[in-house]
Amino acid sequence: MDFIDIINKFPEKKVLVVGDIILDKYTHGKLRKSPEAPVFILKTEKNEYRLGGAANVANNIATLGGQVFLMGLAGTDETFNILKNLLNSYKDINFRIFQDQNRPTSIKTRYLCSEYSQQLIRVDNESIEKINSEIEQEVIRELKLILPQYDAVIFSDYKKGFLTENLCQTIIRENKPVFVDLKPENLDYFKGAYLIKPNLSTAEQINGFKLKSFNEEDLNEFGKAFLEKTQAKYALITLGRDGMLILDYGFKIIPTFAQEVFDVSGAGDTTLAALTLSNLSGANIYDSAIIANHAAGIKVTKKGTAPVYIKELIEALRRDE
Q1: Cα dist. 158→66, 162, 189 in Å?
Q2: Of the candidates 268, 251, 163, which has an alpha carbon nearest to the alpha carbon of residue 214?
Q3: Quick one: which of 46, 48, 59, 51 has its CA closest to 23?
Q4: Which residues of the chain have pLDDT under 70?
């Protein structure tokens, strides 16, 4: 398999990303001790905003060269205005954001000490209430209208309420390849998807038992149970430093290609984007996972939810040939 030929086909592919959009805020500052209590004071130096959740998946599709349309939900607050302006600054991301005045736009604020490049605390402002039936029906109508224009759908589930069982199953029944990153509580939403990509902890929650070891008997037992429960054609289970486990009623482990690990946030989004584009471009599921693993290896060397670029991926694959 010529991986570079596969990657060169990425710009031809069109992916519809549907899911929970999150605004990631990074507040950088210097620490000093408080005279009032045994705590520290962070003196703010700068704020930085990045795309998170489904928006980070869409951003990775775009930076890897694919064509992408993002669909999600936000509130009507000032955070939405920041999110919208940020999305508008990314010329390669087309998007449709539905709004609900009764909920906040999801934002995760990470406070970091500039001197040590260390995260001190994260504060989340969000709603996890399910969308109302009116918004759900509007989303389904628009999805079905534009779906024929796209090669595949990615559902990015962060359990913030935008994705519903009715919405997801309606799209899965349209017989487009559907790639999913999910929360275990929402498994029924995604049954029958083309590929499901959990981490090992999520996969163990879905199966109801832990993976005992990486020997053949335990992997076969675990993989068979997972595919039966999810009714997916394929699964890719991320194993952190141990790489990835690919399931298709057999199994294969692909070791990690990361040279160093600085920050794992957003690595799953990068993996899903690269995997989807690779598979759509003609790579089988195993070769798609190898390409995705290289992309994830690049991501973890970067700070925060930073995307991976197509040139970086080509360079990494050539280096490891």
Answers
A1: 23, 9, 13
A2: 251
A3: 51
A4: 1, 256-263, 321
Would residue 18 be called left, alpha or beta, if left means φ above 0 and alpha means ψ between -120 and 50 degrees? Answer: beta
Tell me the residue length of the chain. Answer: 321
Residue 213, class by beta-carbon neighbours within 10 Å (0-12 exposed, 13-18 middle, 19+ buried)? exposed
Half-sphere exposure of 172 (CA within 13 A, CB side): 23
Tell me which H or E stretch contains 33: strand 21-33
Question: What's the rounded Cα separation, in Å, for the pair 228 and 239?
Answer: 20
- Predicted confidence at residue 258, as pLDDT, reads 54
- The set of catalytic residues is 269
- pLDDT for the residue numbered 58: 97
Domains annotated for the chain, with CATH where assigned, are 3-22+53-105+126-319 (3.40.1190.20)
| pTM (whole model) above 0.70 | yes
Question: What amino acid occupies position 252?
Answer: K
Both structure tokens of 85: 């302006």
Tens-place pLDDT, residues 295-311: 988 888 887 778 889 99
pLDDT of residue 234: 95
